[in-house]
Amino acid sequence: MNLSDYVLEFLEKKNVKNVFTITGGAICFLMDAFSRNKNITYTSVGHEQAAAMMADSYSRLGPNFSATMVTSGPGATNLLTGIACSWFDSIPSMHICGQVNRHELASFNKSTKRVRQVGFQETNIVSMAKPITKFCYQLKNENEIRYVLEKAFYISQTGRPGPVLIDIPMDLQRKKIIPAKLKPFYVKKKSIKKQKLIKQIKDIIYNFKKAKRPVIIIGGGIRISKTNKKLLSFLKKFNIPLVTTWSGIDSITHDVKNYIGSIGVYGSRSANFVIQNSDFVLSLGSRLDTRVTGGVPKNFAREAKIASVDIDKNELNKNRGLKINIKINESLIDFFSNFEKLSDNLVINKLDWLKKSISWKNKYPIVLNNYRSQKKYVNPYYFMERLSNFLKKDDIVITDDGAHLTWTIQALKVLKNQRLFSAFGNSPMGYAFPASIGASIALNKKRIICIDGDGSIQINIQELQTMISNQLPIKIIIINNNGYGIIKQFQELYLNKRYEAVDSQKGVTNPNFLKIAKAYGIKYSEVKNNSNIDKVLRNTIKSKNAEFINVFVDPNQKIIPKLTFGSPLEDLSPQLSRQEFNENMIIKSVNKVNKLTESN
Amino acid sequence: MNLSDYVLEFLEKKNVKNVFTITGGAICFLMDAFSRNKNITYTSVGHEQAAAMMADSYSRLGPNFSATMVTSGPGATNLLTGIACSWFDSIPSMHICGQVNRHELASFNKSTKRVRQVGFQETNIVSMAKPITKFCYQLKNENEIRYVLEKAFYISQTGRPGPVLIDIPMDLQRKKIIPAKLKPFYVKKKSIKKQKLIKQIKDIIYNFKKAKRPVIIIGGGIRISKTNKKLLSFLKKFNIPLVTTWSGIDSITHDVKNYIGSIGVYGSRSANFVIQNSDFVLSLGSRLDTRVTGGVPKNFAREAKIASVDIDKNELNKNRGLKINIKINESLIDFFSNFEKLSDNLVINKLDWLKKSISWKNKYPIVLNNYRSQKKYVNPYYFMERLSNFLKKDDIVITDDGAHLTWTIQALKVLKNQRLFSAFGNSPMGYAFPASIGASIALNKKRIICIDGDGSIQINIQELQTMISNQLPIKIIIINNNGYGIIKQFQELYLNKRYEAVDSQKGVTNPNFLKIAKAYGIKYSEVKNNSNIDKVLRNTIKSKNAEFINVFVDPNQKIIPKLTFGSPLEDLSPQLSRQEFNENMIIKSVNKVNKLTESN
Questions:
Q1: Are A148 and A139 spatial neighbours (Cβ–Cβ below 8 Å)?
Q2: Chain A contact for B32, CB < 8 A?
Q3: Which of A47, A104, A111 minimises the CB distance to B319?
Q4: What is the pLDDT of residues A135-179, one digit of tens each?
């Protein structure tokens, strides 16, 4: 058995069914192992960046993780933006890069340590990927392979998950190995600090009881730790408002009455009023970053005591203005199971507060009536409302980056076992489409709803061929505002409408999507105004094919509401009249900080 | 004046006419400066990777260098494969990345140093780009800007050139500055070691006189140092054979009688016989890497004394088996001008040796008669021969990576002021097409011949839109072997024809190029066999438009000749009969090293 066969067998044992790849000189021997292993397959893609994004979404959804295999040099560097998606969103993906023979490495010979390149397509990918991986290692000899694979796997899955990269020189790929003689990786399982956790849980229960206006924030950690079922039984004890972050958006069905909305810079007015007026916050698996808190963290939930469960102690110990009173640095699994033991018959009823919260939700819906009656162009908020109606209970929606992401997260109603995600932290253009391919492959050619922008679809448009050749029923919905709408809104607000590099007036043009779709043999539809949304969705969402749905929205369509720079989270723009605003505030508001603090 | 205006003014003063960009949140203020500066423009592209490749080719051809401007996070990481092209091929490009506000950087606050991300789309691009840039710096305050720009520019252009990256936080982009008060960058010009150089040049002249079979290798350093005219007057003193590396392929017109061919793993038999039988070698601006020397460097020109002029002392001091007897670590400019002074009336005549070399060139041409008479499919070698005939004296040909690159370099006859290049060191799929766009923009919408593969065009296919919207007359010639031919040849040779991930049998499929071209409104032609090459080239090369020319070659078409693993450079495959081989060898040949030493 050679080392390449061993690598495939390892992946197979870890329940990896499919690897995403572009072959190349330095990965040839690893790819050759597929000819001898029929239990694992690969998908050849058009660009390694897309391969990494496919592996990312596969790892979000699949029974286990996925991997990429790529060649050295550009093959490896092409992965980096995709790996960064897994890094910032805590996704355990594995990336296996071929490398030049060991004796061709610049580092092999003292005299060549400072030479730019020795072997053909040699690149120091380990140094380049280090800032965005949990573990990144170049294999030194064949006998390390078991240890390194097991260690990489363990690290990627344990604690706060994340991507790992293993760089394997060609000469090692074809080395003979004797599996029984390979050194394994052992790890002492980290035990939880039980006494501390019990004390903290009791403290949380005490605070919930004492609080008048408590709220629970549901973050992305729920899906990452696969505790969504535990969350549901936990929530049964609480009759209080629930809010989510963007990453937590699909960890709860939106039709439960105490779900108020998502919080943050692009949150809903109702959810932001809830969080800002609260007096006790329990955050479950959220890093509470500035997109959640607003640009001035000390203004976030500023009269509340805050408890936060986060597996990453670095996130809990950020000292940027937001004070976390109860820092629980344990997994959500351990938190929920210990909470369960300590909360027999516990019920937290804050019915007046819940009623107030629900009244906000009813008073400030995202989708307004005038959106529904809009005559010209499709209103994206109304579109999302209608799209929700056409989805099945286990549909998967993946969105890209930009204005359409915001519209989707704000207005799509996520139900039951549906999924809705993007690469939230890295937020690259071009994620949603390859991620939809990875998702469909992970789930046995399941239909996937891909919501993309006219700008962002360009980035990985080459994967249309991968979708077609693998016959994947992906519904590509382009929310077409003919340019980079989110940047345009920024230029309008802060740069006196000096529009540079955002639309066709300044050199940003779209191809003819109808012709592109036809070139690849994809069915194409257009939605030009609200009145034909239903008809098009009816014909496309249920079809067995891939579909390209071009939805025209006003090029000047805004994101509503949106926090402007320096305002506290409760005071979203367009601003309410001061009277109405003040009526909603139970605590005192603060003045706007007169400083640009957010990036976009 | 704000810092962003200053950056643009700096670029303008350095003769940068155009910047390649995709806008985004963190680069908005820098892009806004274009609204106030009419002397510099930008091109919005479809993917930042392409922007970096455009800047690379622009810098190869333009009057000066070019730059990219991209947003933080994915915008910046998307550049990396393109930056690596500049790094390995010594191209001075500049990359300006937006970054989150300084107070949002993880590094800003001690408590967040180990957090994955603080600001939205924050990524540590400086660490990631360090291995592939000469200078990579995150701006700390606005008063550094002049110093940092001048330093970055100086470093990128001086010594062995290369790319530089400057990361500019958003808050600094909009800071007011007073140019007169900014600290400049001063550098003491490094003086050459004149006495040593004179001694070395005398030594070289002595060796040329003494040698029976001297040869000059022309490397990529000639174009990088812009010494092609100096080279021509230098060469007038020599009636000896001349050979090139791949990077040096366009530094000499191929119709001079003493040009024998290119050397190396995919070199010509004639040039390899010349170099291997030589007794004195002068290498001008080549790093003499293993693609030039073969996998066993000690077998390269093994009976010759070797002199090498290389600006990078690390390359000269590689201790991997190849012995360089005279190491000249000076610029080619200084080498040529001092040589000129020391060589009045010098003429090196080795006419018998030159005659022998020319006889090899005539006996072992790349393009064989049976290629010309091939009936089925287009023969790529013959195609290149014909293409040469249709080119003007200043045409620019850019090729991608893979089999078609090899065919082009082997068979295209480069004349007069023509250019022929690829990203030789990094050798990514997807370079040629965006590089052609960069080249066309650098040269006032000049026509560019882009030779690409059916596999590699996928990587940056989104730039078809950039080409069309900028009305660039690029002739995209796809040498279509329906898969990854160079890898397939490897699998045939070394993996017993176990073809994985190389063609449509195993999931690598092409889109319908006719339909793709039509979708973008590009004229499309096909060349299906040798007999219609001329007709199609006649109609397309001279047209004023972009053209898409799909050239069908046999999916099993080989690269001929090619060095197989372990063989010495003189013994290319398909191997000559041992009798014929031995008749060509003036020195003794060596046995094949029975070891796989090359990557592909």
A1: yes
A2: yes
A3: A111
A4: 999 999 999 999 999 999 999 999 999 999 999 999 999 999 999
Instruction: Enumerate the H helices of B158-227 as residue ranges.
Output: 170-173, 194-210, 221-224
Compute the distance between CA of residue B450 and CA of residue B430 in angstroms, rounded to an integer.
11
A551: alpha, beta or left? (left if phi > 0; alpha if psi -120 to 50): beta
Q: Which residues of B touch A128 (CB under 8 A)?
A: 80, 128-129, 131-132
Alpha carbon of B458: minimum distance to chain A alpha carbons (Å): 6
- A23 and B502 Cβ atoms separated by less than 8 Å: yes
Residue written as token pair 């046999």: B554
d(CA B513, CA A304): 61
- A483 by DSSP, 3-state: which? strand
Nearest to B77 among A24, A84, A518 (CB): A84
Summarize pLDDT for A299-332 with one digit per residue, the tens: 999 999 999 999 999 999 999 999 999 999 999 9
* Whether the bond into B574 is cis, omega within 30 of 0: yes
CA distance B493 to B495: 6
Chain A touched by B20 (CB under 8 Å): no
pTM: 0.97
Tally of CA atoms within 13 A in the half-sphere of B222 that contains its CB: 24
Amino acid at B184: P
d(CA A218, CA A275): 12
Contacts of B20 in chain A (CB under 8 A): none
Cβ of residue B60 closer than 8 Å to a chain A Cβ: no
B196-255 pLDDT, tens digit each: 999 999 999 999 999 999 999 999 999 999 999 999 999 999 999 999 999 999 999 999
Helices (H) and strands (E) in chain A, counts: 25, 20
Rounded average pLDDT over A187-191: 85
Of B88, B127, B518, the CB nearest to A117: B88
B315 to chain A: which residues are within 8 Å by CB? 115
Q: How far is B404 from chain A (nearest CA, A)?
A: 15
Cβ count near B348 (within 10 Å): 16
Distance CA B147, CA A241 (A): 54
Nearest to A396 by CA among A235, A264, A268, A541: A541
List of chain B residues whose C-beta atoms are within 8 Å of the C-beta of residue A502: 23
Residue by residue, DSSP assigns A283-320 as: EES----HHHH-SSGGGTTTTSEEEEE-S-HHHHT--S
The C-alpha of A252 sits at a distance from chain B's nearest C-alpha, in angstroms, of 25
Q: Is A119 on the interface with B (CB under 8 A)?
A: yes
Q: Are A259 and A239 in contact (CB under 8 A)?
A: no
- The residues in A 407-436 lying below 8 A from B, measured between CB atoms, are 425-430
CB within 8 Å: A47 and B459: yes
Find the CB nearest A501 among B23, B26, B114: B23
**Exposed e or buried b for every residue in A106-132, given b needs 16+ CB within 10 A?**
bebbeebeebbbbbbbbbbbbebbbbb
**Burial of residue B365 (number of CB atoms within 10 Å: 0-12, 13-18, 19+):** middle
- 3-state class of A244 per DSSP? strand
Q: Identify all chain A residues contacting B490, using CB atoms and an 8 Å cutoff.
A: 25, 28
CB contact under 8 A, A427 and B121: yes
Instruction: Tell me the C-alpha distance between B174 and B176, whole Å.
Output: 6
Q: Is the pLDDT of residue A376 over 70?
A: yes
Rounded to a whole number, what is the distance in Å from the CA of A469 to chain B's nearest CA? 7
Distance CA B429, CA A228 (A): 42
What is the token pair recorded at B132?
Answer: 């592939």
pLDDT in tens, B56-108: 999 999 888 999 999 999 999 999 999 999 999 999 999 999 999 999 999 99
Tokens of A563: 């926090």
Which residues in chain A are closer than 8 Å to B28, comparing Cβ atoms?
A: 487, 490-491, 495, 600
